[in-house]
Amino acid sequence: MQEETQPKNEAAALDKELNEVLKIRREKLSALQEEGENPFDVTCFDRKNYTRDIIENYDEFEGKIVVIAGRLMSKRVMGKMSFADLQDSTGRIQLCVKRDEMGEEPYKKYKKLDIGDIVGAVGEVFTTQKGEISVRTSQIKLLSKSLRPLPEKFHGLTNPDLRYRQRYVDLIVNPDVKRTFELRSKIVSAIRNYLDCRGYMEVETPILNTIAGGAAARPFITHHNTLDIDMYLRIAPELYLKRLIVGGFDKVYEMGRLFRNEGMDIKHNPEFTTIELYQAYANYVDMMNLTEDMIRTVAQKVLGTTTIVYQGEEIDLGSPWKRMTMTEAVKKYTGIDFKALKDADEAREAAKAIGITLDEDANQLSKGEMLSLVFEEKVEEQLVQPTFITEYPVEISPLAKRYADNPDFTERFEVFITRREYGNAFSELNDPIDQKERFIKQVEKREKGDEEANMMDEDYIQALEYGLPPTGGLGIGIDRLVMLLTDSASIRDVLLFPTMKPLEK
C-alpha cells in the first residue's frame, strides 16, 4: 500500500511544482507586456547563420560576427558570466554571455529568460578553453516566450503515447526523432527522383470516391451534402491510375495518403502513405526488377549503404533478392505440397496437421485461399531477408492477370523483408470480361458480409473495353519502408502525427 502511495505523492508534488512554474512564466510575460516589450509582437528576425554551418566550417567563421536564432535549451548563470545552449533546426551551439560585454540592463533581461524561450543572438565565434565552439554574445533578443517548461524535469517525454500526442515537444527534446523525419523526407525525395529519371510522370487522382475499389479493405464512409450521396475515402488509387494507362500515358505514379477503416498496431495506421506506379508494356517481372533496384538505390543514396540493421537483425539489400512461388515457400517451411493436394478438404486437413486453428468460415475457403492462409500463418514469419513471393491464387488476386498455362494462379508478387510485406505487384488484368466476372464474385462475397471485398466498378470495366495494354503495376508502403531504413519499431515512429485514441475527459 505504501509503495502505491509514494508514486502518487511524487506525481502530486511534480504537478504542484509545474503549476507554480506556469504561473511564474505568465507573470514574466505580463511584466514584459507592461514594459511595452511584448515578445509576441515581434514579426520577424533577420537570421543570417545556422549552428551547423558555424560548427562544420569553424575555420571560416572564427572571429566573425554571426546572427543566429533558436530555442534556449539550457542556461547556466554564474554571476557576471553565463552560458546557454541555443538550438535551431540544424543543431546546437553554446552562447557565452558576459555582463561587461553586453551591458548591465540587457544582461538583467537575459538572466530572466527561461529555458524554452526563442531568441535571436548576435556575437563573435570563438573556442572556449575547453575546446567548445561558442558565440561570444553581445546581443540577445526575446522573439517568443515559452509559457510551458520543456519536459526533461516535469515527467519527461519518454512515454510513447505522450510523445506521439505531443510530437512538437518530442521533436524539440529528442534529436533522434527529428533525424528520423529528416530521413523520411530524403527517402521520399529519392523515390521520386528514381522514378522521374526513368520517365515516370507523377499524377494525382481523387481521394473521395463513389466506389471503394482497388484493394481488399474496409473504407471510411462520408457524405456529400450537395449530391446527397455517400462517398468513400480511397483505399487505393489503382483503378484510376490504370485508366490513365488506357488513356495513353506509358508510365505514371502517385504517392499519397490512403485510408482504411481497420485495426491499429505497430504496422497499421488508419491513414498511411503509399506509392503506386504503372508501366505500359511491362509485366510483374519488370516490376520485381524495379522494386529491388529502387529500394537498393534509395538505401544507398540516403544511408550510404545497402547493408542495414533493423531491430538487431542485419539485412542485406545489396545481394540478389530471393524469389519463390507461394507454393514453393509453403512446401519449404511447412512441408505441405499443395500441388499434391486434390481439393480444399485435403488442404484444410493439412493445415490442421501443422497446428493451424480453423474456424467455421474456413469451410467456405477454396484450395487457393487455404494456400494463402497457410502462407500467412506459417511462412511470413520466416522471411527475414528480402524475398519475392510469386504465383498468388486467383481467388485472392481480383485485379491480377492469370498465368496462361496455369489459370488458378496469377502473375503477382509480394516482397517480404523482416517478416513483413513491403510491396504488392502484378501483371494487370486487362481482359474486361474476366475482370467483370471477378468483380461479380467479389460482390457476392460482399453481399455475404465481407466488408473488404471489392465493389463493382462499371466505369472501370468500360475503360478496359477500350483497351488496356499489357501493364505492370506496383504498390509500396512508404511508411513501412521508412521504418525499415530508419530502424523504427512502430509505424507511429515514422508518422509525424499518428492517429491516437482520444483522451478521456
UniProtKB/TrEMBL annotation:
> Cross-referenced Gene3D superfamilies, in alphabetical order?
Bira Bifunctional Protein, Domain 2, Nucleic acid-binding proteins
Keywords, comma-separated and alphabetical = Aminoacyl-tRNA synthetase, ATP-binding, Cytoplasm, Ligase, Magnesium, Metal-binding, Nucleotide-binding, Protein biosynthesis
Cofactor note (record)? Binds 3 Mg(2+) ions per subunit.
The entry's cellular-component GO terms read: cytosol
**Enzyme class label:** ligase
Chief site of localization:
cytoplasm
The yes or no answer to whether the keyword Cytoplasm is present is: yes
Where are the coiled-coil regions?
none
Give the cofactors, semicolon-separated.
Mg(2+)
> What are the GO BP annotations of this UniProt entry?
lysyl-tRNA aminoacylation
Q: List GO molecular-function terms, semicolon-separated.
A: ATP binding; catalytic activity, acting on a protein; lysine-tRNA ligase activity; magnesium ion binding; transferase activity; tRNA binding
Q: What is its EC number?
A: 6.1.1.6
Q: Which residues bind Mg(2+) 1?
A: E414, E421
Enumerate the InterPro entries for this protein: Aa-tRNA-synt_II (IPR004364), aa-tRNA-synth_II (IPR006195), aa-tRNA-synth_II/BPL/LPL (IPR045864), Lys-tRNA-ligase_II (IPR002313), Lys-tRNA-ligase_II_bac/euk (IPR034762), Lys-tRNA-ligase_II_N (IPR044136), Lys-tRNA-synth_II_C (IPR018149), NA-bd_OB-fold (IPR012340)
Give all residue intervals belonging to the Aminoacyl-transfer RNA synthetases class-II family profile domain: 181-502
What PROSITE patterns does the annotation carry? AA_TRNA_LIGASE_II
* HAMAP family registered for this protein in UniProt: Lys_tRNA_synth_class2
What the record says about family reads: Belongs to the class-II aminoacyl-tRNA synthetase family.
- Subunit structure of this chain's protein: Homodimer.
- Entry protein name: Lysine--tRNA ligase
Q: Which organism is it from?
A: Ructibacterium gallinarum
